[in-house]
Specification:
- The chain is α+β, with helices and mostly antiparallel strands and about 425 residues long.
- Helix content is about 30%, strand content about 15%.
Length: about 425
């Protein structure tokens, strides 16, 4: 081999090594737009399974290709601090920061050089620390997803953005066909779980609608259902007459083609009786093609089991108000007498329908100050008052007295 040819090869290799400080010492030029690294597919499937879109997952893997070839045992070329698939630095996110890979591996009881452990650690950092998760979720194409992950998560020195994007496009082309079953969140009628809990009373129903976009390859139908998760198929305390089953809130009506929106309509039914146990509840839902697959299964498109949430405060229902128009209040049903006079009835019990005063005196009495009747009994005379205008009994006695007096006068006259 000539000296010039050897120098040319050495120069080319040196240029490729400098493209990424943490890259593996292999010739990647033939891999960039043709074939992917051995761990590209499991890494891609992992992030799609977490609910990322195909291009967002590909954007992450494109970065990992550039960093390490998705090799969990990779050590930065030349003895640098980078370790693992994302080339986390010793003295930092590999073994010192909170969290760090080594501590997380110990906590999980797994090897720090396990591919799945390192993928889970990336997800932990994205969703708990940040590192651009919100910006990544907002991306709409593979290029933007790759650049966001590069800038916000990798925070690399010599990045070679073009190479990362090419890797990501290669991954997307190889594995990015839409899965059969996939859904993306569009809207919901109840408050997000990040907001204060919304209230459901025992015995009441709160109507709800969830709109999802069909991002899969197959159409949805009546077997596309909203099921309970965390754990899957658990019986929900809010399952009632509006649900298909205690673990199925709703189903799609009609057919929803790929790319179209579908709506799940149901209600949060407050339990009654002994099942009414006030407290704060977190409900989780997932989409399932009955008898086929959950959308969150590995290889499908999501959403994950813990993404669709409802934070609910269950409170006691309103007390029974039946018969509240009867009785109560006291002064409404006093005795008769002068129509313009105010009756003086007894005090009613507002908690006992029908317990109001049943009349102060005889309706024929001119005195409205008779004694109140028994609570809860039909209206009756409170007693036989001899005050004021004569009652029925007094009238009879008076009539007999008048007759006797008239007879006596007649006898005297005779």
């Amino acid at each position: 081999m000539s000296l010039m040819k050897s120098l040319a090869i050495a120069l080319l290799a040196g240029t490729m090594m400098c493209a990424c400080v943490g890259g593996p010492p292999v010739d990647e030029s033939t891999e960039a737009l043709a074939t992917a690294f051995a761990n590209d597919k499991p890494a891609y499937d992992f992030f799609v399974g977490k609910g990322l879109t195909n291009f967002q997952a590909a954007g992450i893997v494109g970065n990992l290709d550039q960093e390490s070839g998705v090799n969990p045992g990779a050590v930065q070329f030349g003895g640098g601090p980078g370790r693992g698939i994302a080339q986390w630095s010793t003295g930092g996110r590999w073994d010192t920061s909170n969290p760090n890979v080594l501590a997380y591996a110990k906590q999980q009881g797994l090897s720090a050089t396990s591919l799945n452990l390192q993928l889970e650690f990336i997800w932990l950092e994205l969703t708990t620390v940040g590192y651009g998760y919100t910006q990544l979720k907002a991306t709409t194409n593979v290029t933007d997803a790759t650049v966001v992950f590069m800038d916000k998560y990798e925070i690399c020195g010599t990045c070679d953005q073009t190479q990362r994007v090419n890797y990501a496009k290669s991954v997307l082309n190889a594995y990015g066909a839409a899965p059969d079953w996939s859904a993306a969140f569009v809207s919901q009628t109840w408050p997000y779980a990040s907001q204060p809990a919304f209230q459901v009373k025992c015995g009441e129903s709160v109507t709800a609608k969830l709109v999802m976009k069909n991002t899969g390859a197959k159409a949805w139908d009546g077997n596309t259902k909203l099921g309970t998760t965390m754990q899957r198929d658990r019986k929900s305390i809010f399952a009632g007459s509006h649900w298909l089953a205690p673990n199925r809130a709703a189903a799609i009506s009609g057919t929803v083609a790929p790319g179209a929106n579908g709506t799940f309509s149901f209600a949060f039914d407050g339990p009654t009786g002994a099942e009414c146990k006030p407290g704060t509840y977190m409900e989780y839902f997932g989409v399932v093609q009955e008898g086929v697959a959950w959308f969150s299964d590995n290889g499908q498109g999501g959403p994950p089991d813990n993404q669709l949430e409802a934070l609910i405060d269950l409170v006691p229902g309103d007390p029974t108000t039946g018969g509240a128009d009867m009785g109560g209040g006291g002064g409404g049903a006093g005795g008769g007498g002068d129509p313009g006079a105010t009756a003086d009835g007894g005090a009613g019990d507002p908690n006992d329908p029908g317990s109001g005063s049943t009349g102060g005196g005889n309706p024929e009495s001119g005195d409205g100050n008779g004694t109140g009747g028994n609570a809860g009994t039909p209206a009756s005379h409170g007693g036989c008052s001899m005050t004021g205008a004569p009652t029925g009994d007094a009238f009879a006695i008076g009539f007999v007295f008048v007759l006797l007096l008239a007879r006596r006068r007649r006898d005297v006259a005779i």
